[in-house]
Q: What sequence folds into this?
């Protein structure tokens, strides 16, 4: 059975092994393997989606606003997207705490990025923006985000399939989506849509779209810029130290 946007014949372990040996796989065997591997991912995705986040909006949005933000995007140990995601998680965490909505469990964000197999959520660490003035906190945050992105099972290909399991079927998803396709229409299923693109050498630009009823976006964007500046400084120092 197929699902929109999902590659059913994902690169399963058994399939790779059999194809390497030039052996055939029966549809039934492949189906059993697919079901087993997808089922094994359910606890991972339950942990990512737990706890459910408080809704940013009471109703589905119908009107939206937009703006663009430019960031320094240095080359270093971590990819620029890691730095911007780490900064975003810190900014949202700080913004929510300032509005008595924060959670120590982190910030849930959907990712739709080049190189990723499918749209899937990630739980970004909850680190207050003020803590990023300390280099060790910033370095730990960057390493943590990089590790979380790398640990997504099967590149997120099977996430849509796991949502059919009872443990996940009724769980709320992310309210923020980050993607790198600036030509695509912003999501209407998220309160905040962020499209990140390279604006030039060492520079990235984020096109931010949000529900018009969502208050405090100017403050959130300011916090994101501050957090990104702190992490960029930390990353630049770390890169310089490594080069030395």
A:
């Amino acid at each position: 059975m197929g699902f929109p946007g999902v590659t059913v014949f994902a690169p399963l372990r058994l399939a790779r092994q059999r194809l390497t040996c030039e052996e055939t796989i029966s549809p039934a065997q492949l189906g059993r393997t697919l079901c087993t591997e997808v089922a094994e991912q359910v606890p991972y995705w339950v942990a990512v989606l737990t706890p459910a986040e408080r809704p940013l909006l009471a109703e589905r949005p119908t009107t939206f606003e937009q703006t663009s933000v430019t960031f320094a995007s240095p080359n270093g140990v971590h990819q620029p997207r890691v730095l911007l995601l780490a900064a975003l998680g810190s900014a949202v965490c700080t913004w929510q705490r300032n509005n008595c909505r924060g959670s120590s469990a982190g910030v849930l964000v959907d990712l739709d990025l080049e190189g990723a197999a499918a749209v899937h959520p990630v739980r970004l660490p909850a680190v207050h923006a003020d803590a990023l003035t300390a280099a060790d906190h910033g370095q730990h945050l960057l390493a943590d985000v990089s590790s979380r992105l790398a640990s997504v099972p099967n590149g997120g290909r099977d996430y849509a399939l796991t949502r059919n399991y009872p443990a996940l079927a009724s769980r709320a998803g992310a309210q923020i989506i980050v993607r790198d396709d600036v030509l695509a229409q912003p999501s209407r299923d998220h309160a905040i849509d962020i499209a990140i693109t390279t604006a030039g050498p060492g520079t990235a630009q984020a096109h931010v779209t949000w529900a018009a009823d969502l208050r405090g976006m100017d403050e959130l964007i300011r916090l994101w810029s501050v957090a990104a500046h702190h992490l960029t400084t930390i990353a630049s120092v770390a890169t310089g130290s490594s080069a030395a």
